[in-house]
Design goal:
The protein contains 17 helices and twelve strands. Helix 2 (18-35) packs parallel to helix 5, helix 2 (18-35) crosses helix 17 (425-443) and helix 8 (204-222) crosses helix 9 (239-250). Among the domains are: 53-186, Leucine Dehydrogenase, chain A, domain 1 (Rossmann fold), CATH 3.40.50; 205-371, 3-Layer(aba) Sandwich (Rossmann fold). It has helices at 3-13, 18-35, 39-43, 46-50, 99-115, 136-150, 169-183, 204-222, 239-250, 273-284, 291-296, 328-336, 352-360, 368-371, 373-388, 394-416, 425-443; strands spanning 55-64, 70-81, 87-93, 121-127, 159-162, 231-234, 254-260, 263-266, 302-305, 316-318, 341-343, 364-366. The radius of gyration is 21 Å and the shape is globular. The structure holds (2Z)-2-iminopentanedioic acid (2IT). Residues 88-90, 109, 112, 162, 164, 192, 347, 375-376, 379 line the site of (2Z)-2-iminopentanedioic acid.
């Protein structure tokens, strides 16, 4: 297998699908050497099959806004790979959603889910619906209209969606309510990220951020460092950033920045629990503005329009918002301001140039599919609880999450340790995830 040849074919077949092509390229480059030591993979055309989704559902979603005007969006569900379990992955509601974006996310999800140690295949879905400025009633009507089409594609043993950007507990509630009515199935295991009184796992809302900090702790420990007292810059203020801030604070780190599409809030004294609680209010308002934090806490948070979190000096950078949010220039700025570690929490949060810069300038770097896997892992734990009709305590879930993140870190070390003893976490995560999926595909024959 030659990455160059496969990429040339995919570029010709899917011109303009830049996010998808970027995600595939990164994985193929990481695995090429190992892959070519396995002639049985080449013979079964594992890579050629793995880069193509199993199937893509595309549907029209029509709903009525509060003014009585009819609105039309496009919905998607991409069932990417089912080699190691039923399709599993989130739904993204964002104005910029395209098939390319969801294909990259579904592809990443396949490897990420393989790393979790749990039996889950990869999927992703969503819509170009823009939640910004929408009322609760509009969100509900959109979710209902979306599920009117989606319900036929999913099921607790087939495909289990969850949240992603723009989809949290409120949206999962509306989606499940409609699923139940249409399918006449009362199995809560069809969606994860549910409310804790009706089948949702305790700690699922926090899990992506908590898991990311547990992974960071493992990485720092491996490098002989400690997170206590470190200054942390976080991008975003959504569910993932929120969980990361809670755990960072608990571990004795100081969160000195959060950001939004409008700019950055510098927090010189470090974020407080009260400010973290306010992030939830900001998310629920659908205003999509981080400036609201500075308005609410004028002596603690200082807003600068148009700037990113990476302009605030820190030790550790945690991208928690969107793909490609951290560029090579941002990486250089981080380094010149003293940053020495970047754990990518968002999916593909760093541009290839930024990753290259980190890796060649002594900055510890780990990729999203390892760092953020605690979210989907806890979704997997939610599925187990639903299937057993029980619910575990927060302590039980947290212990399992700890164990899973430690195991993901170990897999990265196993497959990513270089001759000089340093760990290439990108290679480690990609090879570990790939080997598991490839082996399963091989054993299941030519399908
Ligand atoms: O990117 C992700 O891993 C998620 N959005 C969570 C997916 C899930 O099924 O919990």
């Amino acid at each position: 297998m030659k990455t160059k040849d496969i990429m040339a074919r995919l570029q010709a077949k899917y011109p303009g699908e830049s996010e998808y092509l970027q995600a595939v390229q990164e994985v193929l480059e990481s695995i090429e050497e190992v892959y070519n030591q396995h002639p049985e993979f080449e013979k079964a055309k594992i890579v050629e099959r793995m880069v193509e989704p199993d199937r893509i559902f595309t549907f029209r979603v029509t709903w009525t806004d509060d003014q009585g005007e009819v609105q039309t969006n496009t919905g998607y569900r991409i069932q990417f790979n089912s080699a190691i379990g039923p399709y599993k992955g989130g739904l993204r509601f964002h104005r910029a959603v395209t098939p390319s974006m969801l294909k990259f996310l579904g592809f990443e999800q396949t490897f990420k889910n393989a790393l979790t140690t749990l039996p889950m295949g990869g999927a992703k879905g969503g819509s170009d619906f823009d939640p910004k400025g929408k009322t609760d009633a509009e969100i509900m009507r959109f979710c209902q209209a979306f599920m009117l089409e989606l319900w036929q594609c999913i099921g607790p043993d087939q495909d289990i969606p969850a949240g992603d950007v723009g989809v949290g507990g409120r949206e999962i509630g509306f989606l499940y309510g409609m699923y139940k009515k249409l399918a006449r199935e009362y199995n809560t295991g069809v969606l994860t990220g549910k409310g804790s009184t009706w089948g949702g796992s305790i700690l699922r809302p926090e899990a992506t951020g908590f898991g990311a900090l547990y992974f960071t702790q493992n990485l720092l420990h491996h490098a002989g460092k400690d997170i206590k007292g470190c200054k942390v810059a976080v991008s975003g203020f959504g569910n993932v950033a929120w969980g990361a801030c809670i755990k960072a604070l608990e571990l004795g780190a100081k969160v000195v920045a959060i950001s939004g599409p409008d700019g950055v809030c510098a927090i010189p004294e470090g974020i407080t629990q009260e400010m973290i609680d306010y992030m939830l209010v900001m998310r629920a308002s659908n205003r999509d503005r981080v400036e609201d934090m500075a308005t609410r806490f004028p002596n603690k948070a200082f807003f600068t329009a148009g700037k990113k979190a990476w302009s605030v000096p820190c030790d550790i950078a945690l991208p928690c918002a969107f793909q490609n949010e951290l560029s090579e220039d941002d990486a250089k700025e981080l380094k010149s301001n003293g940053c020495w570690c970047c754990c990518e929490v968002s999916n593909m949060g760093c541009q290839p140039g930024a990753i290259h810069f980190f890796q060649h300038n002594g900055i510890l770097f780990a990729p999203g599919k390892a760092v953020n896997a605690g979210g989907v892992a806890t979704s997997g734990l939610e599925m187990t609880q639903n299937a057993e009709h029980i619910s575990w305590s927060g302590k039980e879930v947290d212990e399992k999450l700890h164990f899973i993140m430690k195991s993901i870190h170990e897999q990265c070390v196993k497959f990513g340790t270089q001759p000089d003893g340093k760990v290439d976490y990108v290679k480690g995560a990609n090879i570990a995830g790939f080997m598991k999926v490839a082996q399963a595909m091989l054993e299941q024959g030519t399908i």
